[in-house]
Amino acid sequence: MRLAGTFLTAAAAITGAAAAPGTTTLGPRQQSSTITVDLTRTFQKMDGFGFSLAFQRANLITNMSDKTKQKELLDLLFNRTTGAGFTILRNGIGSTPNSNSDFMNTIAPRNPGGPRATPQYVWDGKDSGQLWVSQQAVQQYGVKQIYANAWSAPGYMKTNNNDANGGTLCGVPGASCSSGDWRQAYADYLVAYIKFYAQEGVPITHLGFLNEPDYTASYASMRSDGNQAADFIKILYPTLEAANLTSQLGIACCETMGWGSAVNMINSIRSQGQEGRLKTVTSHTYTGGPSSPMNSRNPVWFSEQCDLNGQWTTSWYSNGGAGEGLTWANNVYSAVVNYNASGYLYWEGVQWPNPNTNEKIIRVDNRTNTYEVSKRLWAFANWSRYVRPGAVRVGTSGGSGVRTAAFKNEDGTIAVVVISTTGSAVNVSVRVSGGGTPIYAQAFVSDNTRNAASTPATLGPDGTVSGQVAARSITTFFILPGARKS
Ligand SMILES: *[C@@H]1O[C@H](CO)[C@@H](O)[C@H](O)[C@H]1NC(C)=O
Ligand SMILES: *[C@@H]1O[C@H](CO)[C@@H](O)[C@H](O)[C@H]1NC(C)=O
Ligand SMILES: *[C@@H]1O[C@H](CO)[C@@H](O)[C@H](O)[C@H]1NC(C)=O
Ligand SMILES: *[C@@H]1O[C@H](CO)[C@@H](O)[C@H](O)[C@H]1NC(C)=O
Ligand SMILES: *[C@@H]1O[C@H](CO)[C@@H](O)[C@H](O)[C@H]1NC(C)=O
Ligand SMILES: *[C@@H]1O[C@H](CO)[C@@H](O)[C@H](O)[C@H]1NC(C)=O
Ligand SMILES: *[C@@H]1O[C@H](CO)[C@@H](O)[C@H](O)[C@H]1NC(C)=O
């Protein structure tokens, strides 16, 4: 048996210790449910898992004066060994002229005098605390997907002369303004924001020009239908091309409140011939989720999900409540396996205690410099640590009393995510077909008492990986296959 160096490195990265591979002896024959992973049956490619720190939540990390705790927070979010290992960060592009309340300030606070006047960009080097966290994510943790998403254009570019309360970008169909056509100015402004980030060492990879365009909020918000979005893409895309940005980033659209509006908007964008200019299709599910996968060739992200209503909980499982860890392990499962999601993002990574809801994954109190981690973080860890960007989902079959999803990572490792569906533990055997025979396996469990803790996995002489999936747990088997036998 020979371990390829790269695989050993991958395993060591995960355990945080030198991997001590080897064949463990298989115990006496036990009842087990067999899960077959078929590497030849392939589905969507994964982009990964993430969260946002928009509306100055990033400041809770960036301003944290206790540097040990600051590092702990970054590790909890981005570290693949000790935290969730998130791989997508969604930042808000500010549209407000000031930073009052939790507003995100814009780089173009003043109307230069019209859409053709020379814009007056102002870069504060903070971007509501998001720049520093982005720099840490990229430089320290190797995060490669930085998503910049505007909730609105600056107010003077809109029909209602306000970045809040809806309104529409001046110049798109049905939105004419006495101030003129601001479409090109808005595209130029988005490019200017990307260039400020590039100067600071952060390459933005995804750009969104709308957020919840099907909803009018009392904070930054801008309405758009699919036809209007398509019209703006016809200006934005060539502007990105002219700025030589299309190899670095792509357009994400449309961050709708619900899946139904996403379907309608993407259909309009397609009928306008603009779907091919998108990199990613994004939707929230606050006003309704999917009943079938999105009809799009683009990767689909569930780009903002959370439990907005429940009281803050750190529970893994108590009664199946909307904020519990196991609920989120299953929510991700459903999006990925049933609805073809390539990306899955929670709403806020961190937030202060008020409101004391599950909008955030970690609750940070900046008055006391303390924080509390919800089990949702560990539900995401079970996915994000092992299902890496570029992983391809592959077929699974069998397995009673469990839900399964399997992925082949770009480095050849295989992640098999198993969630128990009953209140009992299940012994499982995982067989991999269509590729090499497993030569090294590890398993990790999250449940009421454990957070992505190592749990025994045995490797049989025939390459079958066996282990136990605890009651109401998510257990991930991480497998290194040997050379392909052909
Ligand atoms: C599962 O395996 C454990 C040992 O790994 C054994 O003690 C237990 O009896 C098995 N359970 C079933 C249902 O076979
Ligand atoms: C972070 O610091 C800025 C000043 O740089 C301040 O305006 C903001 O309120 C602070 N936010 C938090 C959450 O500490
Ligand atoms: C992630 O955590 C491990 C284990 O504590 C540590 O060795 C490593 O330096 C951390 N990574 C970063 C980028 O801080
Ligand atoms: C365009 O961008 C690519 C990749 O970011 C870079 O390699 C190339 O040098 C750029 N070309 C120009 C003309 O700036
Ligand atoms: C799943 O998404 C991929 C893009 O990530 C797309 O090519 C494929 O057609 C989608 N499959 C279904 C069933 O929608
Ligand atoms: C805590 O955060 C809030 C919200 O950003 C801010 O108003 C306040 O000044 C911060 N307090 C401290 C002590 O940093
Ligand atoms: C999954 O989440 C559980 C529950 O908190 C945790 O004990 C376990 O270690 C996690 N597993 C992985 C692979 O991250």
What are the bound molecules? 2-acetamido-2-deoxy-beta-D-glucopyranose
Taken from the alpha-carbon principal axes, the silhouette is: globular
User: Major sheet: order of its strands?
Assistant: 19-18-22-16-15-14-1-17-21-20
Mean pLDDT: 92
CATH topology of the largest domain: TIM Barrel
Low-pLDDT windows of residues? 1-30
How far the N terminus sits from the C terminus, by CA atoms, comes to: 17 Å
User: What's the CATH first level of the largest domain?
Assistant: Alpha Beta
Strand content is: 25-35%
Give the quaternary arrangement of the chains: single chain
Which sheet architecture does the biggest sheet show?
10 strands, mixed
Strand-pairing-aware structural class: alpha/beta
Return the domain count.
2
Q: Tally the helices: what do you get?
A: 9
**What is the gyration radius calculated from CA atoms?**
23 Å
CATH level-4 homologous superfamily of the largest domain: Glycosidases
Named CATH architecture of the largest domain: Alpha-Beta Barrel
What percent of the residues sit in helical stretches (DSSP H or I)? 10-25%
Number of E-type strands: 22
Break the fold down into its secondary structure elements and pairings.
Elements: H1 5-15, E1 33-45, E2 48-52, H2 59-62, H3 67-78, E3 88-93, H4 130-139, E4 145-150, H5 183-199, E5 206-208, H6 226-242, E6 250-256, H7 259-271, E7 278-284, E8 300-305, E9 307-311, H8 325-338, E10 341-351, E11 357-358, E12 360-365, E13 370-373, H9 376-384, E14 392-398, E15 402-408, E16 414-420, E17 426-433, E18 438-446, E19 453-455, E20 457-459, E21 465-469, E22 474-481
Parallel strand pairs: 1-17, 2-3, 2-10, 3-4, 4-5, 5-6, 6-7, 7-8, 8-10, 10-12
Antiparallel strand pairs: 1-14, 9-11, 12-13, 14-15, 15-16, 16-22, 17-21, 18-19, 18-22, 20-21
Helix pairs in contact: 5-6, 6-7, 8-9
This protein binds 2-acetamido-2-deoxy-beta-D-glucopyranose (NAG) (7 copies).
Signal peptide: 1-19
Protein name: Glycoside Hydrolase Family 5
Keywords: Hydrolase, Signal
